[in-house]
From TrEMBL:
EC class name: transferase
Signal sequence segment: none
Active site: E320 (proton acceptor)
Record carries keyword Signal: no
Pathway where it operates: Nucleoside biosynthesis; alpha-ribazole biosynthesis; alpha-ribazole from 5,6-dimethylbenzimidazole: step 1/2
Pfam family, one: DBI_PRT
Molecular function GO terms recorded: nicotinate-nucleotide-dimethylbenzimidazole phosphoribosyltransferase activity
Protein name per its UniProtKB record: Nicotinate-nucleotide--dimethylbenzimidazole phosphoribosyltransferase
Gene3D superfamilies, per database record: 1.10.1610.10, 3.40.50.10210
Protein's organism: Intrasporangium calvum
C-alpha cells in the first residue's frame, strides 16, 4: 500500500495578484526591488494577506542521521562528526545556531538515524530516533519501505509541532556525514540523471574520494533505477536511495505545505527532500523558496525541476539550514517593504 499522496492547496492566487499590484504601486521604479518583490508576493500569497504580516517567528529543525556510504570513503570527515555536531546544536554553538541567534530564530535538533547513543543528550533529541544509520545504498536499500513510511510520518509530526508552536516561516536543516551521496542519488533517480551529473565535493573531498563517491553513486543508481535512470514511486526512492533522516525531511516538507506554512530551503539535502516531497504531494513546492545556492551540482538540477531560484549565492556548503537561515533577514525585509513603503501615487501630485 503506497503512502497516501495528495495534492496541496496552493498559496492564495488572488492575494498574490493583489501583492504584485501593491508592489507596482510602491514609491519605486517598477520591478526595482528585484527578487525581494517576488519573495514579498509569495509571502503574501502564503499568508493570504496583503501586505504580508511581519515575519516574527522563524523556526528551524535540523534532522540528523548517519549513512552507510561513509564506510566507502565518500566524505572528507569521519562519521563520528555527526553525533559530535548534534551536541554542538544542543549547546547552541553550531554555525546555524549562531545565525539563528542573530536572527531571533529557534533551532531544534533531532536524531533521526545517528549511529550513536545520544539518549543522554538533554531535551527530546532522540524522541524520534528511528535507526542507527541507514544502509550503504550502493549495496542495499537504505531502509525498508516500512521505515520510510514511518520516517515520513515522523517528519510530518515534527512539522506539526513547529507549526503548532506558531512558526510563520520554517527552515529545514540537516546534519549527517556522507549525506550528499544519498541526496545526489535521490535527485538523480527523481530526474533520470546519471551519477556524473549530480556528484559534488560535499564537505570538500579530494579527487580520490570523488572517484570513490562516483563509483558508489553509479552502483547505487544501477542497482535500483530502471532504464530511464528513474524510480517512479517516491517512497520506494527514499527507501532504496535515501535514508531515515531524508525521508523524515520529505515528510516534514509535505506537512509544512499541507499546513500552509512557507519553508526556506537550504542546500542540496533539503532540495533533494523537496523534490521527493513534490512527488509525494504535488504542488507542495509552491510553499518553498530556496534560501541559497549550494555548489553541489545536484542542487541546481533539483532547483530547476522545482522552478526555484535561490535568494543568496554565497558559496556556502555547510548544511544545517545555515544558507536558508542567512536568507531570513531578506525574507523579513520583503514583508516590511510591502508594509511600510509609501505608494508613489501618495507622493506625486496628480
Ligand atoms: O547543504 C549543502 O548543499 C551541503 C553541501 C556539502 C556539505 N554539506 C554538509 O556536509 C555534510 C555532508 O557532506 P559529505 O561530504 O559528508 O557528504 C552534511 O553534514 C551536510 O550538512 C551540505
Ligand atoms: C564539522 C562539520 C560541521 C557540519 N555541519 C554540517 N555538516 C558538517 C560537517 C562537518 C565536518
Amino acid at each position: 500500500m503506497p503512502t497516501q499522496t495528495s495534492t496541496i492547496t496552493p498559496p492564495d492566487e488572488r492575494t498574490h495578484a493583489a501583492a504584485l499590484e501593491r508592489l507596482d504601486g510602491l514609491a519605486k521604479p517598477l520591478g526595482s526591488l528585484g527578487r525581494l518583490e517576488q519573495v514579498g508576493a509569495w509571502l503574501a500569497a502564503c499568508q493570504g494577506v496583503c501586505p504580508p504580516d511581519p515575519i516574527e517567528r522563524v523556526r528551524a529543525v535540523v534532522l540528523a542521521g548517519d549513512h552507510g556510504v561513509t564506510d566507502s570513503g565518500v566524505s572528507a570527515y569521519p562519521k563520528d562528526v555527526t553525533a559530535a555536531m548534534v551536541h554542538a546544536f544542543v549547546a547552541g554553538v553550531a554555525g546555524v545556531s549562531v545565525l539563528a541567534r542573530q536572527h531571533g530564530a529557534t533551532v531544534r535538533v533531532l536524531d533521526i538515524g545517528v549511529d550513536a547513543d545520544l539518549s543522554s543528550a538533554p531535551g527530546d533529541v532522540t524522541a524520534h530516533k528511528l535507526t542507527r544509520s541507514s544502509g550503504p545504498i550502493d549495496v542495499t536499500d537504505a531502509i525498508s519501505r516500512d521505515l520510510a513510511e514511518r520516517a515520513i510520518a515522523v517528519g510530518a509530526e515534527i512539522a506539526d509541532a513547529e507549526v503548532d508552536a506558531g512558526a510563520q516561516l520554517l527552515v529545514l536543516g540537516d546534519m549527517g556525514i556522507g549525506n550528499t551521496t544519498p541526496s545526489a542519488a535521490l535527485i538523480a533517480s527523481s530526474l533520470g540523471l546519471e551519477a556524473d551529473a549530480v556528484i559534488g565535493r560535499g564537505t570538500g573531498i579530494d579527487d580520490a574520494a570523488r572517484a570513490r563517491k562516483l563509483d558508489v553513486l553509479a552502483r547505487a543508481l544501477a542497482r535500483v533505477c530502471d532504464e530511464d535512470r528513474r524510480v517512479a514511486d517516491p517512497v520506494a526512492r527514499l527507501a532504496a536511495l535515501g535514508s531515515a533522516d531524508l525521508a523524515a525531511g520529505a515528510g516534514f516538507l509535505v506537512q509544512a505545505a499541507r499546513r500552509g506554512v512557507p519553508v526556506l530551503l537550504d542546500g542540496v539535502i533539503a532540495c533533494a527532500e523537496a523534490l521527493v516531497a513534490a512527488d509525494l504531494a504535488p504542488g507542495a513546492q509552491a510553499w518553498f523558496v530556496a534560501g541559497h545556492r549550494s555548489p553541489e551540482p545536484a542542487q541546481a538540477h533539483a532547483l530547476a525541476a522545482l522552478g526555484l531560484e535561490p535568494i543568496l549565492d554565497l558559496g556556502m556548503r555547510l548544511g544545517e539550514g545555515s544558507g536558508a537561515m542567512a536568507a531570513v533577514p531578506l525574507v523579513r525585509s520583503a514583508a516590511l517593504l510591502m508594509r511600510e513603503m509609501a505608494l508613489l501615487a501618495d507622493l506625486v501630485a496628480p
